Amino acid sequence: MSDITLAKPFPDKRNKTKVDLARIIGFAILLIVTIAMILPLGFMLSTSLKTTKEMLVFPPTVIPEHFAWENFKELFVNEEIKFGRQYANSLIVAIMTVIGTVFSSSFVAFGFARYRAKGSQFLFVLVLSTLMLPYPAIMIPQFLLFTKLGLHDSLLPLILPSFFASAYMIFLLKQFFSTLPNELYDAGRIDGCREVRLYWSLTLPLSGPVLATVAIFSFIWSWNDLLAPVLYLDSQENFTLPIGMAAMLSSKFRIAPWNLMMAASLLSVLPIVVLFAIAQRRFVQGIVLTGIK
């Protein structure tokens, strides 16, 4: 029987053209969205490097004629702004909030994920139902509580609630903890680990991605929070960045210092960008893996 060589079919140029066209359109859409996202950042950078005189020029200049790097220095040396103190306050509140949220929420989530006691599912649903309560609904009772405790005009009312867990973070962590196999915990118990040791030495080391996700969410929410600082903080020494930057517009400047505001905005974005750049891989991995069994 003679070998028959089948001719390869000619490639369909129309399909290739459609694929190339789809890629070009997709790339164009991504380029337009990227430019739209970068434009505000470019405007902030341009304005932050302008002098007060050039800031008021109309139409505005895109590239400053004179790069006023002293605007960034002005933020830290001006006694009316006290930007350095506010920056430190925001870092303290954000870091402590991350620590409190990660450990309290993970501890509660560990209990919901590993133990099947009677009524545990009802308690979990009850915890999740608190997500339907907006912050203004508990704002006044919480304010009265911290005022009675003598904690008004301090950073503690912004930090302490994070040590009592977050319903959303509990849900996120519980979904991830449920994916860990029971055999790991059985092996740990055989080796003599108690429940707290199973949580600390077994669960947390295996939960890096979801813990990074919780940490980033907690940091961003605390760093950008304006309502709670407005509610609890009175003295400028205790202001965090959001309320401090808002107070710059009502300060004793003759003209609204938009160049200083833009410089402050750039510096306030920096920690979030650095945090996301460091934990980006674990953050994306935590979002993808959460809920997968």
Automatic annotation (TrEMBL):
Topology relative to the membrane = Multi-pass membrane protein
Q: Name one GO biological process term.
A: transmembrane transport
Domain ABC transmembrane type-1, by residue range, is 87-279
CDD domains found in the cross-reference section: TM_PBP2
State the UniProt keywords alphabetically. Cell membrane, Membrane, Transmembrane, Transmembrane helix, Transport
Superkingdom of this protein's organism: Bacteria
**Matching InterPro entries:** MetI-like (IPR000515), MetI-like_sf (IPR035906)
What family is this? Belongs to the binding-protein-dependent transport system permease family.
Q: What is this protein called?
A: Carbohydrate ABC transporter membrane protein 2 (CUT1 family)
